[in-house]
């Protein structure tokens, strides 16, 4: 199927000539933080907050699927979620990420939280520096599709899992029923350049292309980016809805462009994730509802009823136990669990 190209994308490709890159170099090494105010890591947890409640349910979901695991690998740990949260319940957690900047932040967060059972290493999942059969549990949360070779990443995860070990994979679900595309922009800043990021996402079939245009960090361009960020906050991040944050901004500041890069991501669906795990050699690959899905649906019905923090946490734990055995449809976007078969 031919892929759609937007007006802004066509201009970038024809006028700036971006070079091929990857998500680590183009995006994650440039971000000061992937997420700010992570509950239980950056800020105290408040389970009356919707985001905190759903994330607690996801943590409990992962714990249920990791029950009995003693050495767990968090692939694509980012700034420390979910590995640092899981470490409070597990004997040992190892977090790995291909980005130096992300592992630096995660290691500092672990140190600040006093977590002695956490190891953070800069490492690519497509070439893991671990012996065979090193872990009895692996979690991957919205990271697999960001690798340059997701299939090799799954083969490596299979290799380092012990026989009988389990993997639970969340991914950036692309189960949209609507066709078409969506787009957004965001900015970054490093000592070397000011970054204008353009993301074009296609829903069916699921893929996205990411572009970075680097501008010289002169005082004048920093002022231009300050105004751009104010506009994004005021009118939104969709460039086709406002040319002053889209193609007009780039054209007006073209003289300050230093370079450009791009990369493409092919997204999984629940069905393709399950099937790929089976192809790699996993058994019992199953699409199982996340407790976070049920938490999102339940919260409006229990909000304002005076539940204590302990009671809300118990509800999250109960949802995790409940959802553990509820299979989800192939087009649900729900996470997938699988087991490495025992030998013989």
Q: Please estimate the helix content.
A: 25-40%
CATH topology of the largest domain: Rossmann fold
CATH class of the largest domain: Alpha Beta
- How many structural domains are formed by the residues? 2
CATH superfamily of the largest domain: Vaccinia Virus protein VP39
The number of helices is 11
Cα-atom Rg, whole angstroms? 21 Å
Shape: globular
Beta-sheet strand percentage?
A: 15-25%
By helix and strand content, what is the structural category?
alpha/beta
Number of β-strand runs? 12
Residue runs with pLDDT of under 50 for 5 or more positions: none
Q: Compute the average pLDDT.
A: 94
* Gap between N and C termini: 43 Å
| Main sheet makeup | 7 strands, mixed
Tell me which CATH architecture of the largest domain applies here.
Answer: 3-Layer(aba) Sandwich
